[in-house]
Amino acid sequence: MKTNDLIRLLEEDAPAGMSLGRRITLALLAGVVVAALLLIVTVGLRHNLASVFETARVIFKVGETLLLAILASALVYRIGKPDLPARTRALMLLVPLGLLVAAVVTELALLPPADWGSSWRGQHAAFCVFFIPVLALAPLAAFLVALNPALAGAAAGLAAGAIAAAVYAWHCPDDSPLFVATWYVIAIGIVTAAGGLIGRRSLAW
Amino acid sequence: MASEADWADWMRRAIGGDAEAYHRFLHAVTPRLRAMARRRCDQFGAPPSEAEDVVQEVLLAIHLKRGTWDPARPIGPWLSTIVRNKMIDSLRRHGRRVDIPIDDVVEWLPAEAQADGSERVDAERLLARLKDPQRDIVRSISVEGAGVRETAERLKMSEGAVRVALHRALKSLAAFYRRDRHEDE
User: Fold this and answer.
1) Which of A33, A60, A187, B154 gives A132 a disulfide partner, CB atoms 3.0 to 4.6 angstroms apart?
2) How many domains does chain A have?
3) What residues are paired with B97 via a beta bridge?
4) What is the C-alpha to C-alpha distance for residues A144 and A199, in angstroms, rounded to an integer?
5) Residue B63 lies in a domain
6) pTM for the complete prediction?
7) A191 occurs within a structural domain
8) pLDDT (tens digit per residue) in B137-166
């Protein structure tokens, strides 16, 4: 095939359609809505939500997951664009990491060592690690479809996992940073790894 | 000679559906890509005949990736990044070809001798791997120069089906290039 023949093929191919940014925005909206609805219709919001919302631990848990969701989503927007470096946005992820470490240290300082174990285990560790990836299914699928031409699976997984965690935090009765630092991180890690594996197969262009 | 601003302008209009602007863009970019590819091939000790394969792989990538360019930004850095990445991929793949069994080399050499400077072996071999309606459509449009409508009539397909198959074919071609690389590794 001559190069001019190839150019003719490219010209005849349909116009580009929606821009990458708009596809990601649609995926983000769809993913958040589906994950939130899924939480509400299955396990529901936490029953004592209004009253516990004043405690520092709950505010930390909801705020931390939300911050991670926002920063990881910002990374997804950047990572599919070849001409823009993603490094600054990737380094921003150190902020929630630092907050998490600070919260764990504070919790360890506040709690008597005898209570560390029960706070770390919580009541629903297994459910947390199971349900965050379930909630992440919709945002992850939506991101992967939107990102089609980009090696961004892991970023999509991290954003999807963080969105799911930020949704799950509205149900989860385990509030200790020890719990969040362990089980939330494991759950988000599962989704990140899954996104990376799927992305390696399906996102290369 | 067109400036980078012209390129950006053409690409912007092309994304908006202006086929004439896309035609201009592709024909303005290709000679530059070719010069770049030849220089790189020279620099890395690859025969200059491989440059045209690089050009075609880069053109495919630009086409399939064009949705990732933000029209509010200059097009130069976006193009350069794609060109550099694809060029590295392509040269690496061709660099390894030296080590493959003699059978494949025999197949490679005469075809290369026939090449008229812009006819490429890789693309030809990859075209042959396309599945049926896709391969017919690609040949009809590229080699025979038919439009989508003409191709649809000839193959007794709807225009929509031809468009979908054409787009899939281009994605498959890009994937074949990639997979080629993985097989070599």
Assistant:
1) A187
2) 1
3) none
4) 7
5) yes
6) 0.63
7) yes
8) 888 888 777 888 888 888 888 888 888 888
A82 to B27: CB separation less than 8 angstroms, yes or no: no
Chain A residue with Cα closest to B69: A81
Give B 43-82 residues with CB within 8 A of chain A. 52, 55-56, 59-61, 63-71, 73, 77-78, 80-82
Q: Which two tokens stand for residue A138?
A: 């919709």
Task: Please tell me which residue of chain A has the smallest CA distance to B84.
Answer: A82
User: Do B76 and B154 reside in the same domain of the chain?
Assistant: no
Position A173 in a domain: yes
Q: What is the pLDDT of residues B75-103, one digit of tens each?
A: 888 887 787 777 777 766 665 443 323 33
Closest alpha carbon within chain A to B53? A3
Contacts A–B by Cβ distance under 8 A: 112
B173: CATH: 1.10.10.10
Interchain CB distance below 8 Å, A10 and B26 = yes
Residue B75 and residue B158 in one domain: no
Whole-number Cα distances in Å, A191 to A41, A162, A163, A185, B29: 22, 9, 11, 10, 41
Number of domains within chain B: 2
- Residue at A14 is within a domain: no
Strand partners, B119: A2
Name chain A contacts of B58, Cβ cutoff 8 Å. Answer: none
3-state secondary structure of B73: coil
**Identity (one letter) of the amino acid at B12?**
R
* CA dist list (Å): B168 to A46, A176, A201, B161, B178: 47, 50, 17, 11, 15
Q: Which residues of A touch B56 (CB under 8 A)?
A: 1, 3, 6
79-108 of B, contacting A, C-beta below 8 A: 80-82, 85
Contacts of B163 in chain A (CB under 8 A): 13-14
Residues B138 and B177 in one domain: yes
Computed from CA positions of residues A158, A159, A161, A165, in that sequence, does the dihedral angle turn out positive or negative?
Answer: positive
The range of the structural domain enclosing residue B17 comes to 1-98
Q: How confident is the model at residue A17 (pLDDT cuts 50, 70, 90)?
A: low
CB contact under 8 A, B120 and A11: no
